[in-house]
Amino acid sequence: MDIIMDEDIKNCIDTLNRGGLILYPTDTIWGIGCDATNADAVKRVYDLKRREDSKAMLVLLGNVNCLDRYVRDVPEIAYELIDVAVSPLTIIYDNGYNLAPNLLGEQNSVGIRVTNEKFTQMLCKRFRRPIVSTSANISGKPSAATFKDISHEIIEGVDYVVNYRKDDNEKRKASSIIKLGADGSIKILRK
Predict the structure, then answer these.
(1) Is the CB of residue 180 less than 8 Å from the CB of residue 92?
(2) In terms of C-beta density within 10 A (0-12 exposed, 13-18 middle, 19 or more buried), how is residue 68 classed?
(3) Fewer CB within 10 A of the end CB, N or C, for the chain?
């Protein structure tokens, strides 16, 4: 493993374990992250983004096998969709649990993305808990596709800034979003 990546992962885990916020590159755009089971940390993310806590944020998992730890009754189609997805896919599920209550939407809904990108996947696996992933911007402002697009206010508002991919200028886009109802219904929210 890359020395910079390994050091970043160790520092991220230390920060997350203390209830801190991280600024990190995801499988899509740069994100603000925290321990998705820590309500105080989740509140700090909402405050930093100046975002209403009624607007749920998504979480990252490093392994599809962890999904049923955070969603009751995962629809079988979810596993198939994750398996065939060729680009990052966020699925919104009903009946999320074992997560910070202020992270859940109506009907305890939660957006979860199983990441395949090596940094975020390793971070999730080593942290062993889901990690909040929300765009690194003030609510209502454009999302940051690269590190240089992130405002000073966001950079100063987190506890640790990842160095890995800081100089990467590849423009990535946000994930596709699908809502899966407990009844098996599928609704595409963002392509």
Answers:
(1) yes
(2) exposed
(3) C
